[in-house]
Amino acid sequence: AGGDGTIATAAALVANTEIELAIVPGGTLNHFARDHNIPTDLAKAALVAAGEGTVTGADIGYVNDCAFLNTSSIGAYVTFVRDREQLQKRVGYTIASLVAFLKTLAQLRNFTVSLEVNGQKKTYRSTLVFIGVGERELKMPALGSRVKNGKRGLHVMIVRGRKRARLFSLALAAIAKGTKEAEHLPEFDDFVVDRCRIDLNWPIAVIGLDGELKRMTTPLDYRIERDALRLVVAPPEGDE
Questions:
Q1: Which of 32, 82, 127, 207 shows a CA-CA span of 20 to 30 A to 75?
Q2: 13: domain range?
Q3: Quick one: pLDDT at residue 143?
Q4: What is the DSSP letter of 234?
């Protein structure tokens, strides 16, 4: 039982074994459970975990040797999470998120990213790199969740706008119209890959993993392991 960060720790221990992973989601957002047909209601999730569920394969992402289930981020989002966590206890999640977003936008910093994709090296000046396990949706109301029946792999998204106004416009376009619209803008690149390496211009980086912040040595080697988990999920509708 626990949130996505706790579940990721458990998942890393049982990945690529015959052990089944049955979870009772207890976090705030529970993205992994929602994306994999696991009830977020504790009583229903407990019944699924206790034997009413079925077993299916699930992908897991790694950066260096650290597992993650949903998303990883570098740059502006890390600043956003730090500020939101500092404010949340005083003003609540929603207001803290809004204030943190505005503060992050005002303090944007560019950094150099060298990205190797399918043997080709690309270099960017970026404010935000976002990596999701499975193809991700940026369109409301499904912001941040997996695209239904989307591509498998790591969805790498890079924002490379240098001006705050242009970056803000990009964010609005992505939220309002989705990835398919945003990817045509010159400030946005994305790839779905099985692995990639990200070099930064500092030896230690604080990155976001499933909503938590972790210090990692660079370069950052990302990879996906397909069907690494034997995940217990709710049976399809009609099979109950």
A1: 32
A2: 4-59+226-233
A3: 52
A4: P
